Amino acid sequence: MNKEQSFQENNNAEEQIPVQETEAVEAVANNEQTEAGGETAEPTMEQVVSKDELDRAQAHAEEQTQRLLRAQADFDNFRRRTQKEKEDLAKYASAQLITELIPVIDNFERAMATKPEHPELESFSKGVDMIFRQLSDVLKNAGLTTMETVGQPFNPEFHQAVMQVESEEYEEGIIVEELQKGYVLKDKVLRPAMVKVSG
Asked: Residues near 198 by Cβ (< 8 Å), separated by ≥ 6?
């Protein structure tokens, strides 16, 4: 073997060593990548969620949903109730005042029923009649109406029976006489009529 051949073999050996080292390094790197994020890597503790925890989370979410639905339903009911109260307040705002004026109407009618027949008082009587008609018109425009009672069937929601009498003219349960007028404001009874009913 000459010196030239020996030199070439040494060079070939030196070239082969780095190649083998490189392959070993790549293999180690591939193993680390596989362990870090590959398919064969096991999940960490933070990634594991037990079935009990999932059931608890779902139950909590369901409970919160039900609470929200109940709160929304309560709010809708509150909104409807306040809207109705506001409408009723606007509708019956004058109810208390008109209720207090009803005895005044009664007194007017009593005074007009007993007015004396005297020529000197005729103009005075006409003036009182005009005032009464004016008051009646104002109350009628506010929604006040007088109940029609005689000849009508007795209704405890509108009538107050103070006496039961025998009547040949009316059937049983029919109002035969009105003792005190009843009044309705729109669809609300302000004062029931005081009546006699056939027995």
From this structure: 164, 165, 166, 167, 170, 171, 172, 173, 174, 175, 176
